[in-house]
Amino acid sequence: MTVDSQQNLLSTQNMNALIEALKLSSPPLNDVQDLLLPLLPKINDVERSAQPRPFSGFPAAALLLIQAVESRPQIMTLTGFNGDQIRAQLQATTELNAYLARLEELQQQLQDTRLLLLADAWSAALEVYRTAKGLEHLDPTLRAVIHPIADTFKGGKANPKNK
C-alpha cells in the first residue's frame, strides 16, 4: 500500500465511514454471537493444552477408517465407534476452518487498521507535543498542559512517513 493510499484510508472522511460501518456491523455481530456461542464449548488454557492433536492428513484417514470399520460390526461394538458422529465432526471442522479463515483475515485487517490509526495519531500528537515543549519558554502557560503528559511522550518516536 502506498503512502498516498494509506493517507486516504486515514482521512477524516474515511474514518467517519469506518466508524459508521463498525456501528452498523455491531448488531449483526451480536446476532452471530447469539447464534454460535451456545453451540461452542468454552475451555480454559489447561483443558486446551491437554487436548490431543491429530496428525496431518487425519480427516482423509478417518474417512477411510470409517469405511473399513462400518462393515465390521464387531469392531464397532467393541469400541463404541460411531462413524456418523465422526463424519459430522469432520464436516463441522471443515465449516469452522472456512469461517475461521474469514474471521482471521478480518481480524488482521482490523488490527492493522488500529495500528495505522494509532501510529498516525501518535506521530501527529508527538509533533504537536514537541513543538509546544519547544515553545514553552515563550508561553509559560504551556507548561500546565505539557508537564502532566510528559511521561507519555518522553522519548517517543514518530512514524518515519511523517518526517
What does this structure look like?
The protein has 163 residues and is an all-alpha fold. It has a domain at 1-40. Helices cover 75% and strands 0% of the residues. It contains seven helices and no strands. It has helices at residues 3-9, 12-36, 45-50, 58-70, 73-79, 83-135, 142-153. α4 runs antiparallel to α6 and α6 packs antiparallel against α7. The radius of gyration is 27 Å and the shape is elongated. The two termini are 18 Å apart. The model has no long low-confidence stretch (mean pLDDT 90).
Question: Could you provide a short overview of the structure?
Answer:
The chain is an all-alpha fold and 163 residues long. It has helices at residues 3-9, 12-36, 45-50, 58-70, 73-79, 83-135, 142-153.
